[in-house]
Design brief:
A hairpin with a 3-residue loop joins strand 1 and strand 2. This protein starts with 14 loop residues before the first strand and ends with a strand. By secondary structure, the protein is mostly beta strands. It contains one helix and nine strands; from the N terminus they run ββββββαβββ.
């Protein structure tokens, strides 16, 4: 550790603890036509510790105590359902909607960001056996996030302009209404009695966060499966 915050006589955060708890409840029916209905709750917590140093002696700073200086709480509550069909043409559809909230605080100097919103997610995937050698699969994912609230409290006056821009940009993204779609199509062709195979995959994505940021992409993959 070679940096010491002389103003506060403390080291930077050097240890982070993460905790996560999840509860999932639902009902499932499994047959050629299968479906599920579920509800889920996920709670996360992050805390970061700083070591408070004593007076310097022979180039060493004794650690007097440890303080929890960074705290973050995350909440995600959602309900959903899925419907699928088995057979030569296997396909499944899944829908989720819910509420999420994140609250992050740094104790001193006081810094805080908080944002919350609603979300809806629709997913579909399909697997088709074309013949004894060729299989096709595809997947699509559609996500919409609707921002409900946002709070930011930062000592911007004492920060570098580049850091201020980065923090404000991240905050604007987290509090924007966001729309994202991505998907891919893949073909698998086995060789050597199915132990090995080659595959070709084509995919793409598009993301829009109101008038703040937009992103599109296309990818192509060709490889060997073993």
């Amino acid at each position: 550790m070679n940096e010491i915050a002389s103003e506060f006589n403390s080291f930077p955060i050097d240890k982070v603890y993460k905790e996560k708890s999840s509860l999932l409840m639902g009902w499932k029916h499994d047959d050629n036509l299968y479906y599920t209905v579920f509800g889920a709750l996920t709670v996360g917590r992050i805390r970061g510790e700083e070591r408070v140093a004593g007076s310097e002696a022979r180039g060493e700073y004794p650690v007097l105590t440890k303080l929890t200086m960074y705290k973050e709480q995350d909440l995600n509550a959602r309900v959903g359902a899925s419907l699928g069909f088995k057979g030569r043409l296997w396909h499944e559809y899944r829908v989720q909607m819910g509420y999420e909230k994140t609250n992050a605080q740094y104790v001193y100097p006081k810094r805080e960001t908080q944002h919350s919103g609603l979300f809806a997610n629709v997913q579909t995937q399909c697997y088709a056996t074309m013949n004894k050698r060729l299989t096709l699969s595809w997947q699509a994912d559609l996500l919409y996030k609707h921002s409900l609230s946002g709070v930011i409290n930062m000592p911007f006056v004492n920060m570098q302009p580049s850091l201020v821009r980065a923090i404000r940009h991240n905050y604007d993204i987290n509090t924007a209404h966001l729309f994202a779609i991505n998907g891919h199509v893949r073909a698998d062709y086995p060789i050597s009695k199915g132990e090995y195979g080659v595959f070709l995959q084509v995919g793409g994505c598009a993301i829009s966060a109101q008038n703040i940021a937009h992103q599109t992409g296309v990818n192509l993959s060709l490889g060997l499966r073993f």
